[in-house]
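Exercise 7. Predict the joint structure of the components listed below.
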Amino acid sequence: MRTDEHVSPSPDEPAGDARGHDVVDAAADVVVGTIWWATGPLRGGGRLAARAVEGAMSSAVRRSRWLHTRAQTRPRDLGGAIEHLILSLLRPLIRRIVEAVIAELDLTRLILDNVDLDAVAARLDVQAVVKRVDVNSIVAGVDLDSAVSRVDLDQIVNRIDVNGIVRKVDVDGVVAMVDLDSVVNRLDLNEIAGRLDLDGIVARVDLQAIVDRIDVGAIVGKVDPDAVVARVNFDAAMAQIDLIGVAQRVVDGIDLPGIIRDSTGSLASEAVAGVRVQGQQADDAVGQLVGRVLRRRALDAPRPP
Amino acid sequence: MTTGPLVTTAAVIGPEHRPAGIVTRLSAAIVDAIVVLVVGLLIHLTFAGARFIYSPTTFQWEAVSLWASLTLEIIVAIIYLTSAWAVIGRSYGDTLLGLRVLSRRRRRPGWALALLRATFCVLFPVGLFWVVISPDRRSIQDAILRTVVVYDWRAESPS
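Solution:
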């Protein structure tokens, strides 16, 4: 048996579990080959012994009538019987020899020193090996919980370039594939709202900037004040207002005597100013008239004293 | 003759502080005459009331002589005008019409000058009409005493 009987080039096979299986198979082949090689002398000796026995038996058959009769009656079974006999005699011996050889040899060292495992692995038909593996049974036998519990997920996550992954993701396409209605229907919005810290959220909101961005004029322009006023129950509103008290506070807040005094003073000042202006105009008119009578040159403005 | 504080020409006789004409000054004089008449009447009533309180049973309205009344009014007018011109530079009629009396040095008239001008104005009121003839709108009193009456609508009195 050769170690490369089941080996074929498979450059496309990736490393991993298949590589492990390849190494096991190669090691098994090497062990068997080594045993076969180590037992070569024994087998040669066995074959020689079998030939010698066969020659002796043929001579005995020719010399013994009983044996000749037995041989004539069952001629086809003679070779098989001889071989069976020989194997029966040699099997315990072979077993002990092999066990002694195996116990004596360091097979691992022998393989590492004499076998080019890389070449063997490169020539393994990993795909075929993998196809022969019952993955389901292997997975069924694995304790995934314990395996996962030994994994440091935080370290793995820290090594992941999440931003790079996200950049490669077509978010729009993913969102377009999502049935948002069904997602929303499964959400308990009341529970989510109850868990929200609305005060904290509102505290971080720049309300002034939001208000500045609101076009209040446009909003007010859309309001129909007539409809709003028509819906107001003025009678009920007026009934709730203490008009007498309001009027009393208004009157108390107004300095009516001061207003009347100022108004009167203003009227008097205007009247006095009117009298003064008219008096000056009358003075100028008289001055011009006298100037014409007296034939003066500067009639409009009298010279300063 | 003493005069009051200086009132500069620039401060008082500005574009609107030119000498006043006959109409304005005559109107102010009429207002002052009414004030004097009212004050004289109040004085007469005060004396009558005092006599009534002193002897109600014997009280009778006495016929006041023209000369006595005229003398009273002249005295009241002189006192009234003197104090008004010397204190604030203007009488009530002057205040109403926006006039101010200034001395030769453009100051508020002093007590002596105010007394002379008031006496002259009361005893010779016709001299006011010289304002019509005078090129710089001075009355005979102003021409003799070197005073002038100007337009001044400011409420405060120049110090």
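Discussion. The first helix of chain A runs from residue 17 to 38.
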